[in-house]
Task: structure prediction
Amino acid sequence: MAATNRPLDLAIAAGTFREDLYDRLHVFPLTLPPLRERIEDLPELVQQFVHTGAVTLGKRLETIPQAVMDARHAPPWPGNVRELEHVIERAVILAHGVSLPLEDGLPTRRHTETLTGAPLTLAAVERQHIVRVLQAADWTIEGPGGAARLLGLHPSTLRSRMRQLGITRPPPHG
Result:
């Protein structure tokens, strides 16, 4: 199975996509409208992503804020299904207790933009995400609740990425 948001027939005509690969992928095409046009799918997708994330992380989440489930009354979701999954996964990682920490509902802008609207670099987004997960894991790298496991990385890989991105544990307060 493969997915794209690009018009592959135009890419073939422009010479930027291989026709033989298109023929192999185009056995049974399904065309779905973007998620912003299927707003009624949001609650079910959110429930599934919360359930999957909670099971994976061994958390017991019983409450999804009504603001998230009433997404059809909110501004249109700005991203795709994968981005929604990442927002929910991040919320599950940061959850303490039995409620998903999205009391204000789903974000109305993409997380890869700064307040000025300029896109962040991939390294900056990766750095932010790693720091958030480390904070949620109380800066524990290894073990059952450690950041490496939450990120799906080997602890040495996480330490290496932290060095490359200049991430260090802040000094204790007090």
About this structure: The longest helix spans residues 42-57.
